[in-house]
Design goal:
With about 180 residues, the protein is mostly helical. It has a domain at about 65-150: Flavocytochrome C3, Chain A, domain 2, CATH 1.10.1130. The protein contains 4 helices and no strands. The structure holds heme C (2 copies). One heme C binds near residues 101, 104, 114, 116 and 143. InterPro entries: Multihaem_cyt_sf (IPR036280), NapB (IPR005591). Belongs to the NapB family. Keywords: Electron transport, Heme, Iron, Metal-binding, Periplasm, Signal, Transport.
Length: about 180
């Protein structure tokens, strides 16, 4: 009689334990989808241009792909030594050991034929300021410095003003003072 009760208790205990064990097995986690976060952020206050203060665990809604402008309108340069941006698309233009597609049109010898601005003399100078007959190795990979123009909005705010607009303001202020 006693032995049977003991057996029963042992069986019950085993059942409870196995139930607990099943509970401890990892269950598939159901994670609610992250709330959508506008990828634009606030360029006036956000310095973090890439993640825009969105926590690393939250998915950012990506910006639409920027469209390359291909209508030959040259943009102004913000400062004198800025490499001008490229006013045409450069899809498939190969620049490698054997050929430089950009120089097909931008070399001095062919620029007139293609109605392209020729690269400036700086592009023929080596590091000792000697002028070479061919494009300098320092300027061979054009897109190291020149980028295509796109319709992308700036990711961060930028208060840069060039020297001309600063001088203009200063002269206007001086003129206003002189009138007083
Ligand atoms: C088929 C001829 C052709 C090829 C190839 C070409 N370009 Fe041009 N590029 C032009 C012409 C023409 C212009 C003048 C503006 C216009 O009509 O788009 C120009 C303008 C530019 C300008 C603007 C210059 C300025 O003063 O504003 C840059 C920079 C430039 N190209 C860089 C490049 C780079 C870099 C490559 C190679 C990846 C390249 N181009 C390949 C024809 C060409
Ligand atoms: C190391 C940076 C750098 C590289 C590489 C470079 N450029 Fe430039 N490029 C500049 C700068 C800076 C300017 C503006 C000042 C100047 O003319 O030197 C410029 C100016 C130009 C201009 C305008 C010239 C003018 O007189 O207005 C053209 C066109 C140009 N580059 C084409 C090219 C092409 C094509 C290549 C590749 C073969 C190339 N660049 C490689 C920095 C570079």
């Amino acid at each position: 009689m006693r032995a049977r009760r003991l057996l029963l208790v042992a069986a019950a205990l085993a059942a409870v334990l196995s139930a607990c064990g099943r509970d401890r097995e990892p269950r598939p986690q159901v994670v609610a989808p992250a709330p959508e976060v506008g990828a634009r952020g606030n360029p006036a206050t956000d310095i973090d241009g890439l993640r825009r203060h969105v926590p690393i665990t939250t998915e950012v809604t990506p910006l639409p792909m920027a469209v390359v402008e291909n209508f030959d309108r040259r943009r102004g340069r913000a400062y004198p030594m800025q490499p001008p941006t490229i006013p045409h698309s450069i899809d498939g233009y190969q620049v490698d050991l054997n050929s430089n597609r950009c120089m097909l049109c931008h070399a001095r010898s062919t620029a007139a034929q293609f109605q392209a601005p020729e690269v400036s003399v700086t592009h023929y100078m080596d590091r000792n300021d000697q002028f070479l007959a061919e494009i300098s190795p320092r300027r061979y990979f054009c897109v190291q410095c020149h980028v295509v123009q796109t319709d992308a909005e700036p990711l961060v705010a930028n208060g840069f003003r060039d020297i001309d607009s600063l001088l203009r303001d200063e002269r206007a202020a001086q003129a206003a003072q002189a009138r007083q």
